[in-house]
Amino acid sequence: MTDAIAAERATQEPVLSVSVDYDAGDADDGMIASARAFTADFLAAAPAVGREPVPRERVDMARLVVSELVTNAVRHAPGPCRLLLELFEHVLDISVYDRAEASPVPRGHDPGRVGQHGVEIVVAVCESVRVEPQHPTGKRVRARLSLLGSG
Description:
Strand content: 15-25%
Structural class: alpha+beta
Radius of gyration: 16 Å
Number of helices: 4
């Protein structure tokens, strides 16, 4: 057990990271579109820190994941939320902090259902998705997305 704890603490530092806070009142002012653009701009800066440009399809996938996670926070959590992007060598960690304590739950596959597929999408395209309680209230939803192109 000690080895597992030591390994968790020895995780590498991100090459680049940035966060932005959104007020609950921003939802009507294009907050989700802003979060998608923020993500694309962040990934466009990757060459500035000595790494290869992120493939366009991976940028689009990151924008999709951010859109779904921020939408979930806007719809189901009171108050502000924070988007944190952490760029590692081959992955992007996307975290959304909000003030709701309940974890998002993927619903069963239902092609007839309109909407409410966000968590399903995130789980399907990401390497991992974790929900971490934040104290005194709230949570962090962390999704890890590979930045390696599909071909």
